[in-house]
Fold:
Amino acid sequence: MPTTRTRTPRRRKSSTASARPRPLAIGYIRVSTAEQADTGASMDAQRATLTIEAAGRGWDLEIVPEPGLSAKNMKRPALTAALHRLDDGDADVLLATALDRVSRSVYDVAGLMRRSVDEDWLLVTLRDNIDTGTAMGRAFVQIAAVFAELERGLISERVKAGMAQDRGRRPVRSAP
Structure:
């Protein structure tokens, strides 16, 4: 069975892109909570994983951290700056350990995928085996986005249920 090869990102627009000997990947790492950001363990693990992957693919890597912010939407300063660099041709690949590190919204992921195709940069996530440089990768990113959004919804439901249960156990305060 033939293997599917990802396309090499094309260099365009930026003069810095044509001066680079190897494709530049922006390694996006993120954790959701302040506690996770403070310990740094997950961020360190993501950084190490992306460093190994980029080296194996022959890409230069620039890590862009976004500690303590949710992926419920795309309104995150480091991600926004990374996407502008990709659109401008100053980088070739958005690399993340998993799609849910980038977004948990089907709508946002669909827009991100379209943007990567239109602007000719790659979206590559490792755990999900997503690579928009292949037809299968573009199809799979849409499927993975559905499950990322489902996971976000389930987490929200569990948190709300836990808060409601906590309220039920607390004594009701009387008015002064």
In short: The first helix runs from residue 15 to 19. The domain at 15-169 is CATH 3.40.50.1390 (Rossmann fold). The helical segments are 15-19, 34-39, 41-57, 77-87, 99-102, 106-119, 135-169. Strands lie at 24-30, 60-66, 93-96, 122-125, 130-131.
